[in-house]
Amino acid sequence: MVADIRAVVAAAPLFTPETTHGHKMSVRMTAAGDYGWISDRRGYRYAPRHPDGGVWPPIPASVLAVWKAVAGVDRAPQCCLVNWYDDHARMGLHQDRDEADLSLPVVSISLGDDALFRVGGIDRGGPTRSIWLRSGDVAVLGGAARLAHHGIDRLRPGSSTLLPKGGRINLTLRVVD
Ligand code: SIN
Ligand code: MN
Q: What does pTM read for this prediction?
């Protein structure tokens, strides 16, 4: 799967998204599928093209197989977001709610170094729990948890040998429209 993701990155290079306030996010991103998810000063949105103008490469079969095994729905994912974390990258607490049908799950695959995943409830500011996600872990945000707030507080650098230069890849699969 890592080789498949390297091929995705070769076709659709990683970029550094910016928030609407112009702050650079600490993860680097790209995507595969019909849509990528991009964020810049104009806002965040699903987009049919990479910021450099090209179409996104197809979602690799190895990744689709995980969706088929765990998603429990007939639809195929339309977006495989690729988040690339270096030792210091993090992801603030947020909800995934830009998709048309929120009854369909989000499937997340972790590769590389361990990451401290924080998950809370639907309301912002409520209690949260933290779980170390390890390489090969698959998390499904579905049902009552579909709109749970979630984020990554930090990595545990050096905890996995999967990626020769360290770091972490997270793949997030979603049906968009
Ligand atoms: C995300 O919510 O976009 C990423 C979550 C993760 O990196 O595990
Ligand atoms: Mn998310």
A: 0.97
